[in-house]
Amino acid sequence: MRERAGSGDDDGASGTGRQPRSPFARVAILVPVFLGLIAEAAWITVIAGLVQEYVLAFPSIQLPVLAIVAGGGALTAHVLAPRLGSRWPAVATILTLAIGAGGWLFVTEPRAALAAADLPRALSSHPGGWLVGLAFLRGTAYSRLPIAEPRLGRLLGLGIAGLAVAAVAGGMISEPWRGRFLADALVGATVFAAASTLALSLARIGAVGEEAGFDWRRNPFWVALLLVLVGATAAVALPASRIAAPIVTLIIGAAIGPFILVSIVLGFSRRTVWILGFVALVATGFVAVVTLFGGNSPPKFGPTGALGGSAVPETPPEAVVGGALLLLVIAAIAAFILIRLWARRGSGEQPSVHEIRMIDRGGAGPPRRLWHVRRRARRTPGDAVAAYRALIEDLDRHADLRRRPDETPSEHAGRLRRTARTGLSLDLIAADYALARYGGVDLSPVEHRRAVQRWINLRRLQRGKEARG
Amino acid sequence: MTLQALAGVALIVGGSFLDVPVAIVLGIVLLLLATVHWVWATRGLDGVTYRRRLATDRTPWGTDIPMTVEVWNRKRLPLAWLRADDEASDKVGVRERTMRFDERGALVLRNAWTLAPFERVIRELHVGADHRGVFELGPVRLSVGDLFARRAIVEDRAGVDRFIVRPRTVPTHGFERPDRWGGEDRARIGLTEDPARFAGVRPYVPGDPRRRIHQRTSARLNRPITKRFEPSRDREILLALDLQTVHGPTWEVAFDDEAVEALIVIAASIARSLAIERATFGITAAGYTGAESRFASLAASAAPGQLERALDLLARLSSHPSAPFERLLDRIQRATRPGTTVLVLTARDPAPFLAHFRAIARSGSPVVVLACGREAERDLARSRAAGFAGRRARLDGPWRTAERLVIA
To answer: The domain B48-166: what is its CATH number?
Structure first.
């Protein structure tokens, strides 16, 4: 048992007065903000790529640039908004437009078109660049600390839905833009999901801890588990997304026929069948439309419009994914080291609520799940004594059913019978047990079989009650 | 299956058919969120123990009770957060925490922790109340967050801790029981002696009544000798508390809380003063105490612990009356042993009760009125005019800050 005395309010965020936050606490608050900004940049990257794809151009502004711009937006708002007061919205709008224009002119094509006084071509040549302004605008929402949990919740919820729609919409364009967009979107969506999930988790625990005086640094084990799970999911999801498509299609294709057949046999009403048929018809039509207009994209155009492969060298998705995973692992290790460091430092601050913390595994821990598996796999008892003991072991899990230390088997059985928990079966098994165990009576094989059968019946009855709650 | 999981499955299936890996990735993420949430929703509170311990169940007003709150996560799953909302009675306060209202509108003491596997945390707090009374903490509503810190499960757990905040007491000045015949205690100044208790003789001193001269002993000793008797004081005192501070129907729920609390503080202070003198005293009032009876009553006694019992009764006493004071006086007349001094503590004009006072006096129990209302002088004059002894009881400030009780 490790024991550690410390404070319930490492940051002094509760009690009668609020103490100023330490530098480490400030960093702890900033982590969800950084992650949120990365998530914002990730979804804007995907949308910018979609916009570029729809004008048959490749995206030119990558996620790190957008993340820096979003961070700049947060910093600008944090510094300027309090000083400018009511003038800040106007200034922010001008800055957003200016930065959007900067993003638009980030590549040479619109600049060349402007030089040639061809405004329509300039406007249509790099529309995705305007979304840099959106990144700045979204960044300004992160100027207040700590970041509000509902904001990140909306970001995650709407972001996933929006990215799914964008991905489906982007999949309808022909190659090579489709492939490039989907590859970029895959990375963007993965980064978005990981960053927004982590940001939301840290912000949530920050919101709960704000009133109780702790933050995510207090529980390094939780943070490590969270990082491992998110990292593992990101690592698994990318290859799984390539493998899953044929498997899911195969399984559903193979299962839908028998499923409908079994359903009809088991009593689908006529109305249900009609509804099912209608849904199937609509689904077939949808798939047909997608297949006709989006699935096959035989002609491959280069950037010049000529047939053939893309002139722009595409980064292989595996390389991108590998790089992202490597970065994620490095970030996870660095974060873990920092977390350990902060957790140690965090506990040394001035306490305002005295608290004793310890890791206490106790003498008898709670039953493990595997125990249940083993218990279920237990063999049927061979005689009346074993049946009674097995039954007592089953009942021991329930406080109101277990045999008390001062009860004889007969008294225990009588108590459960009087409270209508069991019938006479438990009395009979208890009597067999008492006769065999204490009376020195050799029970007949028939009586042993009866006792085992009673054990089976009582066990089934008990499980039924447990299932009904 | 939750909406989130359904959406995840839909994204995976849709992404598979449309060959959009992004949708599959997002679907997997949603399924992960749903699965993690399910695991914590089913297992989050398994093995979580929550214990609240009060160092004592009684405390004087203004003194907090040390309390420990212990949580123990007896399983391998870490808890991003565990929140315990202890339902609390109105006016309960915790020194280290701000009481708040939860989503049900109940006043709660909110504690939160983040717990590693098998982590056990004992937090030390101090609980009290800014009002006398019986207060409760509990039941507790436990909620835990899943791995992504989203609220996973909420569970109400029974278990209520009660504690009594006894009324404030202040030193009492000017309150001495009158010496009188028939009492059981020795008189303070020895002037009131009971002629039925012959205690011996002593030499005559000028001023001794001539009728107390022991003639035969004086003749034998050839000098004047005076008889000596055991002095005595009041036998029993019953403090009759009038909870109603303004005239009107008893059932009117409106009452002046500050005036009632001042009355209670005066009554508690007098009880303490009597207990210090080891007097035999009791308390009665027409108020609710949580018992079935409409009348709160503590029989007169000088046994050890009588003060604590009196303070407990005053702590439990409702702020509004349960019956008219006249009915309480009738009850006193019927149930009180003759010779018991009935000390009537009231903030009202005693005129409507004079007939009841007379009835009590006729039954052998002298009545002394302790006036403590705003018009105490006038009330006192009326009771004296009716032939009853009276004193004025006054705190030297509001009941929360008063330093002493003056009885004049």
So the answer is: 2.60.40.10
B17 interfaces chain A, CB cutoff of 8 Å = yes
pTM of whole model > 0.80? no
Measure the CA–CA gap between A71 and A78, rounded to whole angstroms. Answer: 10
Q: Which residues contact B117 (CB under 8 A, 6 or more apart)?
A: A221, A359, B73, B75, B76, B77, B78
Q: Between B376-385 and B354-362, two packed helices, what is the crossing angle to 10 degrees?
A: 50
A448-462 in b/e burial notation, b at 16+ Cβ within 10 A?
bebbbebbeebbeeb
Instruction: Tell me the chain B residues in contact with residue A246 when contact means C-beta distances shorter than 8 Å.
Output: 16
Residue B212, CA atoms < 13 Å, CB-side half-sphere: 20
Give me the sign of the Cα torsion angle A441, A446, A447, A451. Answer: positive
Per-window interface: B 62-91 vs A, CB < 8 A: 72, 74-75, 78-81, 83
Which among B26, B111, B123 is the nearest to A163, CB-wise? B26
Count, residues in chain B? 408
The full set of domain ranges for chain B reads: 3-43, 48-166, 172-176+234-407, 193-231
Q: Name the minimum distance, in Å, from the CA of A230 to any CA of chain B.
A: 9
Tens-level pLDDT at each residue, chain B (408 residues): 688 888 888 888 888 888 888 888 888 888 888 999 999 999 899 889 999 999 999 999 989 999 999 999 988 889 999 999 999 998 899 988 888 898 888 899 999 999 999 999 999 999 999 889 999 998 999 999 999 888 999 999 988 999 999 999 999 887 766 655 555 665 554 555 677 778 899 999 888 888 889 999 999 999 999 998 876 655 689 999 999 888 878 777 677 888 899 999 999 999 999 998 888 899 999 999 988 888 999 999 988 999 999 999 999 999 889 999 999 999 999 988 888 889 999 998 998 999 999 999 998 888 999 998 888 889 889 888 989 988 899 998 899 999 989 888
ipTM (interface predicted TM): 0.70
Closest CA to A353 of B97, B49, B302: B97
Gap between the Cα atoms of A367 and A370, Å rounded: 8
Q: Across the strands, what pairs with B131?
A: none
The answer to whether A101 faces chain B, any CB pair under 8 Å, is no
**Percent of chain B that is helix, strand, coil (3-state, to 5):** 30, 35, 35
Handedness of CA A265, A270, A273, A277 (dihedral sign): positive
Residue A348 predicted with pLDDT over 50: no
The reply to whether residue B18 touches residue A168, judged by beta carbons under 8 angstroms, is yes
Strand, helix or coil at B134?
Answer: strand
Q: Which CATH entry fits the domain spanning B172-176+234-407: 3.40.50.410, 3.40.640.10, 1.20.1440.230, 3.20.20.140?
A: 3.40.50.410
Tell me the torsion sign for CA atoms A385, A391, A394, A396.
negative
Please name the member of B19, B72, B114 whose beta carbon is closest to the beta carbon of A214.
Answer: B114
For residue B112, give the chain A residue with the closest CA.
Answer: A212
